[in-house]
Design brief:
By secondary structure, the chain is mostly helical. It is built from six helices and three strands; from the N terminus they run H-H-H-E-H-H-E-E-H. The protein has a three-stranded antiparallel β-sheet. Strand 2 and strand 3 form a beta hairpin. The longest helix is centred in the middle third of the chain and has 29 residues. The mean pLDDT is 89.
Length: 102
């Protein structure tokens, strides 16, 4: 039985189960878990990178645009900015979308 939901839903039964596992099986299990964790970590890192905020100057440099152009794009809802205090930021993911359209 590969589905462990029975044991998850019946923890009183699971506490009495004892297993004999070979070193080879344990190593395979550990490597599988490590592989899954690495993939999830890479996905999370990519999400964070895409959602990071960049300031006006960096956004202009990445896009090869002037600051007034970024302001007009915000007015036209082409590339909207976010304000934190008095500073203006753009989402990196939004910048990538603009670059993909060029």
């Amino acid at each position: 039985m590969n589905d462990l939901s029975f044991l998850i839903n019946n923890p009183e039964i699971a506490k009495d189960i004892r297993l004999d596992v070979s070193g080879e099986d344990l190593l395979y299990f550990a490597n599988t878990l490590i592989g899954i964790a690495k993939k999830e970590g890479e996905k999370e890192a990519a999400r964070k990178e895409n959602n990071r905020l960049v300031d006006r100057e960096e956004a202009a440099r990445i896009l090869g645009a002037s600051l007034p152009t970024l302001w007009r794009w915000n007015e036209k809802k082409i590339l909207t900015h976010r304000k934190i205090g008095k500073k203006v930021y753009y989402r990196f993911n939004d910048i990538q979308k603009i670059l993909g359209e060029k």
